[in-house]
Amino acid sequence: MLRHLGVLFFLWSAAFPSLAAEAPLICFGNEPSWSLTFAEPGVARLALPDEPAVDYRGSATRLDALKERTWRGKAGQGAGGELVAFLRESSCSDGMSETKHPQSARVSLPDGRFLAGCCRVPSAPAARAAPAPTIEGPTWRLTGLPGKDAKALARTGRPVTIRFNAGRVEGFSGCNQIVGAYTLEGDRIKLDPLAGTMMACEPAAMAIESAVTGALTGTLRHAIRADRLSLAPAGGGAALTFKAEPAPVLTGSTWHVTGYNNGRQAVVSPLLGTALTLRFADGAVQGFTGCNTFRASYTSEGDRLAIGPVATTRKSCSGEGVMQQEREFLAALATATTWALPGGMLDVHRADGERVLTASRSAK
């Protein structure tokens, strides 16, 4: 008696709608050509020749003993009759090829039409291969320098960084900004002599800078593994090692300008007692010119930057050079084409490579 009750309970429970997510399935047939696609749980899309596709919403019941399930659903808001699909696990020939499909289908439509065909499991989309790491693009932070330990690197205060992009290399070498040109060929990079600013710093920082600029010369071999870069002399020797900085973010900070292009081939500091600021958010850049507030639209894609026409308040300031500084600063903004964050400093350039401005992130 108990044995019979167990069998009845098994059949009864198998007939209830399955709680498991329905596996994707495409059923189809010929004469007429039709398809019934189960792409998401609870939904079946019927496509027939010369008719718009119709989505039916329903659920399936399964009878494991027969390796069969029945899917029932209604279109729209549930009006009209049911679509009923009988899906059986059995080898099925589509009659058009030698392919054997894993399931057969019998489909009864609300209007009384009856369809027969096979079902196949859709192919999983091919996984996209991760892009191969490249030396160009990221800002690389120095983590290892031959002859110097981690404590010595930390004495510069600001991390030593370098960035390679479209034949131009730039970065911070421990005390000064550096810039130069390079060419790539396979795993070799040839660096032209680097130029840089001429600041003097503490002896510890100058020692790091001397070692960095001395190592970044001539032809080097580069290797990348995940977010790590090594640069070693082509003829052999110890390598400099770097780690890729997180992708830079232009928005979300107020930037205090430390230098701007005055339009006479010079990058100058703001006048004493004045502040030049920028803040990028929601497609607009706004800030202070030392006298007036300003606002302009901007677009940015990757390291590209374009700043639209600028509108300002109309205040006139009497301080010596303040209004001229405003004109030069706003004119410089209009020439911006690229941006980067070497060492966390905003560095903006124009199309000919000349610097537009540098700025530090507000501590607030």
Structure description:
This protein has 364 residues and is mainly β. It folds into three domains: 22-120; 139-244, Beta Barrel (Lipocalin); 254-361, Lipocalin (Beta Barrel), CATH 2.40.128.270. The protein has helices spanning 2-14, 150-154, 203-215, 322-333; strands at 25-29, 34-40, 43-47, 54-63, 68-75, 83-93, 100-108, 114-120, 139-144, 161-165, 168-172, 177-185, 188-191, 195-196, 218-225, 228-233, 240-244, 254-261, 267-268, 277-281, 284-288, 293-301, 304-312, 336-340, 346-350, 355-361. The chain is elongated and about 90 Å long.
The total count of helices amounts to: 4
- Unreliable stretches (pLDDT < 50, length at least 5) are 1-21
> How many strands in all?
26
Number of domains: 3
Distance between the termini: 78 Å
**Alpha-beta content class:** mainly beta
User: What fraction of residues sit in β-strands?
Assistant: over 45%
How would you sum up the major sheet? 9 strands, antiparallel
Just give the CATH class of the largest domain: Mainly Beta
CATH architecture of the largest domain, by name, is Beta Barrel
Radius of gyration: 34 Å
Mean pLDDT: 86
Helix content range of the residues, please? 10-25%
CATH topology-level fold name of the largest domain: Lipocalin
Q: How would the global form be characterised?
A: elongated
| Helix/strand order, N-terminal first | HEEEEEEEEEHEEEEEHEEEEEEEEEHEEE
